[in-house]
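Q: Structure tokens for this one, please.
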Amino acid sequence: MMFRTHIVLSLLFALFIFPLFSINKGLYLLIFLFAALLPDIDNASSFIGKRVKIIGWVFRHRGIFHSFFMLLVLSSAVYIIFNSTGYAVVFALGYLSHLLADTLTREGVRPLFPLSLRVRGPLRSNSLTEKAIFIICLVLGFVLLLR
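A: Here is the predicted structure, written as tokens:
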């Protein structure tokens, strides 16, 4: 899935669950969106991967960074660093939003990496269908913001 689609899907998801958290709303969105983009750090041409190229050179795209294992490891690190369950949960949900979005694509994800189980859907990345999903989610996001 493309960067922009991950952003709008994650924002839409974040807006739905926003009221459940009592942490600073700006920080909430920052953590959520950062976590939603983080799994693609293993792709040297992704938004985050361009800034940390070595990860993309060492790890295969849609490998360990697209797994529940890494979700748990990184969410635990957020909990330890910030001593906050709230931040860790927001991070985990943002990360999960990326994994769920990628399960819709033909490439899919291996959530139990290194096991070979792959969960995939019918969408082709950057296809007309993905662009339509992007526009629909963008409109829904604006509607939610205006309510």
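A few notes: Helices lie at 3-17, 25-37, 53-58, 68-82, 85-102, 128-146. DSSP finds six helices and no strands in the chain.
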